[in-house]
Amino acid sequence: MKRLLMTGLLIFGAILSGRTAMAKKIDKEALANKIKTLAGLDAEERSELLGLLSERKKYGLVWEEKPEDVEEVMREQLPVLAEVKERAIVASAPSAPNHILIEGDNLHALTCLTYTHSNKVDVIYIDPPYNTGNKDFVYNDRFVDKEDAFRHSKWLSFMEKRLRIAKGLLSDKGVIFISIDDNEFANLKLLCDEIFGERNCLATVVQKSRDSISGDLLFSPNHNYLLVYAKKQECVFNERDIFRIPVVVDESKFKNPDNDPRGPWKLNPVDGPGGARKGNPYYEFLGITGYYRYSKEMMQKYYDDGLIVKRRNSLGKKYFLSQAKAKKGVPPTTWWDDAGTTTKGTQLLQSIVPESDFNNPKPIELIERCLVLRHNDACVLDFFAGSGTTLHAVMKLNAEDSGKRKCILVTNNENEICEKVTYERNRRVIQGYTNAKGEAVPGLQDNSLRYYKTEFVPRRPSPRNARALMAASVDLLCVKNDLYDEVPRFFGKKLKKSAGRYFDDGRGRRMLVLFDETTVPSVAETIRGASFKGKVKIYVFAHGDYAYNEEFEEVADKVELCALPAAIRNAYRRVIGKYRPQEEDAK
Q1: Domain for residue 167, yes or no?
Q2: How far apart are the C-alpha atoms of 536 and 517, rounded to whole Å?
Q3: Which domain holds residue 48?
Q4: Residue 304, in any domain of the structure
Q5: What CA–CA distance (Å, rounded) separates 440 from 95?
Q6: Of 57, 80, 102, which closes a domain?
Q7: Greatest CA span in the chain, whole angstroms?
Q8: Is the pLDDT score of 471 beyond 70?
């Protein structure tokens, strides 16, 4: 087996490097036939080798794939979410949005979200490590420094895994915003072109990030980039009216000296010397000769309609206040010099959590600029949450425009950042705090925040492990369905915790998680005798994909069935692949 692997490596190393072409051209068909007859390969390995043989060189990134410890964990264990109930902040208003904070490695959390939020996220904003070499990027528990020969490869491996999952989480109208600086901008652009598709790149925004100047450098960098990609740009283009910046109308400039029934107006020029360069028509109108924006016939029509006004030696066309207010906005530019600075972000964080020593938090103005480009009930995700600016921005905008945006934050707890900065900042924003000036800042109390940690259950297929995954799935299901109100009785009947758990928000949304499949007949009978509107979502333990549809056939119009844990395993498999024991790889 060892000799076989070495032979395969030598052959494909030569093919992929192209060096054999200098000696003689390889007959790929003959080589494919040899691969098909090689002993010691299973069907999957043979298919992989044939796939490598058929690959052609293409434009794009090539890097040395570096294994990641957190990915290796998922070879033998599956991530789940476990709520830290004592940290839950629950609003009194039932309609308040539920925001989620997940403590854990973001690769593990994103894997969980492939089950709960596939194709559901409308906006992703991330501020990943910039890989400066100054202790800002940790890979396999070690800082990556500038002298690391695989510095860029490690960063690309790290980002590629996470961005591929992120793409699957985006809705068809979803957009991702990624902050980055010069260290990895070029690599990130190529990587995103490969993952999201070059045609889905909406913009590269240049954001002014600082006002101060570093005098000890040849150039003083004072900007970052913001890469903006759509999952499907045609879907974003179809609702481009949302993707516009509202126009602020200065009403003081609009007057109505002639009592025009159409309301206050101001004059927009219709002539000027620049018209010659634009090829505008040249003629005389109302005794004034010039290059006019409109034809003489159109000018006459506007004049007859009372829209052309003569003032001294110039003409203008009325532009009404009602027209200005009806304007749908202008496209955002790619130069943002008014989206806050790092200094402003630091000052805001210090005013909320003065004991924090978190470095370079993103300004809230930047996140707001991203969020206003989407609808105000968007599902928002930030899986490099840092100090939690994204959730703060979501809650602030909701308060301003009566929005119902929901936010998911993900961060690890290195140096207790999740507990003492991310959570603490947003807890105080919700409940109110006293700022550095001693001023009381009222809380944004119409928000709920729920705190989760990533935990693990064994992955190896077995009845016992299937039961363990089913038992651990409840918090995942609560997040998936945005339903957290557990009640002890199921349509009047007491439910044993060992048999299942029932959630009902009292407003028509219901969910039953059924651990004991032997209770299916009695559950179906209970539903048959109950009177209610809508459906009950029932997640029932099963050894396969069959969700007891026949047993619930008489109440099929009242239930929505799903077999667990198969649905979770299937979602995860799309991200982490088929289960293969480690000892199998060692053979």
Answers
A1: no
A2: 16
A3: 2-57
A4: yes
A5: 26
A6: 57
A7: 96
A8: yes
Q: Is 509 helix (H, G, I), strand (E, B) or coil?
A: coil
Please state the domain count of the chain. 3
pLDDT at 327: 77
Quick: pLDDT tens for 500-518: 999 999 999 999 999 999 9
Quick one: pLDDT band at residue 244, thresholds 50, 70, 90? confident
Token pair for residue 475?
A: 């918090």
Query: 3-state DSSP call for residue 455?
Result: strand
Measure the CA–CA gap between 342 and 347, rounded to whole angstroms.
Answer: 9
Helix axes 151-169, 106-116, angle to 10 degrees: 20
Output 341-345 pairs: Cβ under 8 A, ≥24 positions apart. 341/208, 341/209, 341/210, 341/211, 342/209, 342/210, 343/210, 343/211, 343/212, 345/387, 345/389
Cross-strand bridge partners of residue 379: 406
Instruction: Assess if residue 549 is contained within a domain.
Output: yes
Q: How far is the first Cα of the chain from the last one, in angstroms, to the nearest whole number?
A: 8
Percent of the chain topping pLDDT 90: 69
More confident residue, 32 or 109: 109
Strands across the sheet containing 314-320? 265-269, 314-320, 308-311
What is the mean pLDDT of the segment spanning 31-59?
71
What is the rounded distance in angstroms from the CA atom of residue 527 to the CA atom of residue 537?
12
Element (H, E) at 408: strand 406-411
Domain boundary among 15, 34, 57: 57
Q: Would you say residue 21 lies in a domain?
A: yes
